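Pipeline run #58 for the internal structure catalog. This entry was flagged by the ingest filter as a single-chain record with no existing model, so it goes straight to prediction. Upstream metadata was stripped on purpose; only the residue string is passed forward. Reviewer on rotation: M.T. Logging verbosity set to normal.
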Amino acid sequence: MVLDAGADFPAAAEQLLALYAERGTAAADARGNLGADPLGLLARTGRAEGTQQQLADAAALAVRCDRELPGVRALTVDATVYHDAGASAAQELGCSLATAVAYLRELTAAGLSAAAAAGQLEFRYAASADQFLTIAKLRAARRLWARVCQVSGVPAEQSAQRQHAVTSSVMMTERDPWVNMLRTTLACMAAGVGGADSVSVLPFDTVLGLPDAFARRIARNTQSVLLEESHLGRVIDPAGGSWYVEQLTDELAHAAWAWFQELERAGGQQAALGSGLIQERIAGTWAEREVELAHRREPVTGVSEFPNLSERLPVREPAPAPVGGGLPRVRSAQAYEELRTRSDLRLAETGERPKVFLAAIGPAAAYTGRSTFAANLFQAGGIQTVLGEGADAATLAEAFLGSGTAVACLCSSDRLYAEQAQEVAAALRAAGARRVLLAGSPRELPQVDDYVYLGCDALAVLGSTLDLIGTV
């Protein structure tokens, strides 16, 4: 039993403890976590008022649990709030350490020994489909916590870190949500291999609203299959000894420790949140990742890659709005899904999606590779493609006139571009094309406005194309 009551954790804790008493549960047999996390709440809400009282309440609960309920922990160090905002793995780890050290100070000031205080903490981390990074992150977290316990005077046998992994909300998509089953399976497997004590798997339709019974059952069964059929729990640290995992663990531990030390120099986790240091650094990290997403160097299957414009999304009841006001909540697919929403609105208003004409120059062997690439890219923004074939510029211009769009994209081989691109582009402009693109690396072609190619800024191309089509 783990509570997650936000600022209401004292009242929720009293209710749970009363339930233990009502059901006759012996104090020694009670198990659970009361979910007090004042600094995590501060990070989520941005509201500093009441934090000191919440810290005092959490400390009082911890003292009570230590004395009366040895199997119950009072505090959660929830690092997923930083992951949800776009933090790197090292930043997530460093913030968790700084939060835990702040809690150790509060609990020891309330009268607990360092060992008893450490025993009152449970750590919560995000597990993503980047399986090796997740494995290394959980391994590095235990190493870092062991070091904190060592310098705090906690005996080695009492310094084990209790880890609860939650599959990443950042990786979840609204479009093609069925792929989320694969993402959460990878994340759950990585959490198990990485040594998490418990794992929560988000249902695949979480982004759409309240999960239905099927989605919840699949989420539960994901763990059951991995435990009972893949036997993930039968080997201690199965990734141990792998050079790649060991090296990645070491790199993460060093980077996280450096970030933790910077937070401590800034006055600790609460002060760093109050000054905006954490918000600024995480925003910078996410901005760098947004560039990778925009250029599709970090692909999102079913969204930025292999989109399905004809899909019918499952309908779910709206979910309550999450607590906000502090660190933002981001998702990898969000920018592309916003473009898809624009396309859906146009479809609802006009009966058809935005379209781009693919001017296929030459035989199929010459244009198929690039026309397929271009179609995939445009569809990632909700833009339907119309393939036009022609032996010459005049034929392609005529086909463009019948396409019902104002944007064209040339598709062919480099050799045929050199021979015919200028002529075809000029013919398309004469036929009314307001924008002419070319599928391939940039080159000196005055009649071409922009280029789509592997590594281009796909979001910029798609957004500007939608802007232009929306004015037609």
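catalog note: Residues 464 and 470 are 10 Å apart (CA to CA).
catalog note: The chain has a mean pLDDT of 95.
status: ready for reviewer M.T.
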